[in-house]
Amino acid sequence: MRSLGLAREGERLSLLCLGAHSDDIEIGAGGTILSLIAQGVRLSVDWCVLSAAGPRAAEARASAQAFLAGAEQARIEVADFEDSYFPEQLRAIKQWLIELRGRAAPDLVLTHARADAHQDHRVVNQLTWNLFRDHLVLEYEIPKWDGDLGRPNVFVPLTSETMERKLALLREHFGTQRSKDWFDRGTFQGLARLRGMECRAPEQHAEAFFARKLRLI
Question: Across residues 191-196, what is the average pLDDT?
Answer without folding.
Answer: 98
